[in-house]
Amino acid sequence: MLDEADRKILRALQCAPRLPFRRIGEVAGVSEQTAARRYQALRRSGALRVVGLVNPRVYGAAQWVTRIRCRPDRVAPLAEALARRPDISWAHLASGGSEIICVMRSPLDMPREDVLLRQLPRSASVLDVSIDLIIHNYDAPGTAGWTGYGDSLDPEQVRLLTSERPTPAPGPPPPPADEDAPLLDALAQDGRTTHTRLAELTGWSLSRVARRLESLESSGSLEYEVELLPERLGHRLNAILWLRVAPAHLERVGAEAARHDEVPFVGAISGEHNLMVTVVARDPEDFYRFLTTRIAATPGIDGYGVSISVHHLKKAASLISRGRLVPPASL
Question: What InterPro entries does the annotation carry (predicted)?
Answer without folding.
Answer: AsnC-type_HTH_dom, Dimeric_a/b-barrel, Tscrpt_reg_AsnC-like, Tscrpt_reg_AsnC/Lrp_C, WH-like_DNA-bd_sf, WH_DNA-bd_sf
